[in-house]
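Continuing from the previous page...

OK, I double-checked the sequence for Calcium/sodium antiporter against my notes and this is the correct one:
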Amino acid sequence: MFSMDYLYLLLGLVILLYSGDLLVKGGVALAAHFKISTLVVGVTVVSFGTSAPELLVSLNAALTGSPDISIGNVVGSNIANIALVLGFTAILLPLPVRSNSIKYDWPFMMGASVLFYLFVLNQYLESYEGIIFVILLIVFMVWTVWKSRKQNKEFSEKIPTAKYSIIIALGLILASSVGLYFGANLLVDSAKNIAIRFGVSERVIGLTIVAFGTSVPELATSGVAAFKKEMDISIGNIIGSNIFNILGVLGVTSIIKKIFVSKEIISFDILMMLGISFLLFILILPLRKGKLHRWKGVLLLSFYLIYIYLVFKQI
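Thanks. Re-ran it with the corrected sequence; updated structure tokens here:
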């Protein structure tokens, strides 16, 4: 029974990974049939697809009485996206910095992160605060599409080619939704059992194992892109994923159920998330021709390893 928890944990991670991939493929194909541009697909379908594991895991954890896993999943995932994913990818291949990442995306991510911190100072993320998060997310997505459409005159011509029929696309979306649901259940339940058996808090499990698991899609995609030297996954995409995690995942989850936030997460983990976000800003300067060099990737990856060490040291 003890070993089965590890098997279920691994199985849950694999199901979440493949289900998220299926959701993106099905969504892109469906968007192509409706003549929706690649930009809109990227901002909506792909962003939701890569954050769907976080959403399902956090929602499931909140509803089953594991708020530390729910919050820790998002906070840990955001730290992993910057320190682990960007750090690892920059080591493989230095990343060019788009000026929009500094001028628009990073300030919005930092603003959302600070607002999240202020909201949970009373140890709860309330339903009305979740509504504010979702409204801000909608504003961000609409504004991003409008800004990109204004800057790109060829916007209307960039329509993706449909690789699947409408029936198959709908089938992929349905299958991925079912997979995400069962994958989230397996991941949360097995993580809780392991935490109980080892005497490790759900906070630690959520911030490390669960957060890493839900960041696997970003890590795998970024690594493959670096090896192929096709840097479609840019710094801006990771920043966008972090924005979606806070405003979308926590927003929707807290609307459905008010989330309790432990003092440890408020006084340490969220502050570490704010710290790594600010460090990213320093590393992607200057405004023009900036680059995330390999040594910066090593620095980010080192930050992640130190953070994981400090989390487990608190046990």
